[in-house]
Amino acid sequence: MLTEVPRPRKRLMELLLRTAMEKPGSEEAARRALASRAWGLRFFRSPQQVLPSPDGRGAAGVRLAVTRLEGVGEATRAVPTGAMEDLPCGLVLSSIGYKSRPIDPSVPFDSKLGVIPNVEGRVKDVPGLYCSGWVKRGPTGVIATTMTDSFLTGQTLLQDLKAGLLPSGPRPGSAAIQALLSSRGLGPNAEVLGGVQPVSFSDWEKLDAEEVARGQGTGKPREKLVDPQEMLRLLGH
């Protein structure tokens, strides 16, 4: 039942059900009647292959594997049933996948799963270090899932703090991070240390303004900068 599922999944399902079942108002119904195209969601399908057009220059369809759900709760996963389905289409938009990467040799990392091994957010074998989000559980869920997950890691940290498991006293904070990044980006050892080039918030504001300016010329909210080297050149790094 919907009332028994975790809160993030419940919120998502409520949104999907409300969108799918509520009847549109008169203005929205009239707009849809005049629309040249419509869209919908097709569940229990996993894309396997883009089918080429006869001339090989475009897309003619997508081959989908029919799936079913196995498992309970957050452990539920979609698995192939063996059945396939071809969906005709003339345009395919790819979605970029995500996989976390190790950040430092001192932090344990599971390269196969793309996560930091942890127990309730506590990084294994590294007392005082915590993780949250996709690096904690893998790239699954929605914003509400990640938000709730962060709350849980925060509660774990507070429990350890109250139990006296974390060091007390003044900490260097962001100043130490800035000094570390600067040391790795400058000097003769920069390449060995990773070639880090720190970018400040004011630097980000410059890039943001540049993206907006480029987008105005093409009628878009912004034109994304995707080349890190171009970003650094614009910042004079």
UniProtKB/TrEMBL annotation:
Region described as Disordered: 211-230
Gene3D superfamilies: NAD(P)-binding Rossmann-like Domain (3.40.50.720)
Membrane-spanning segments: none
KW Flavoprotein (keyword) present: yes
Cofactors (names): FAD
Domain of life of the source: Eukaryota
Key words of the record: FAD, Flavoprotein, NADP, Oxidoreductase
Keyword set includes Flavoprotein: yes
Protein name per UniProt: Ferredoxin reductase
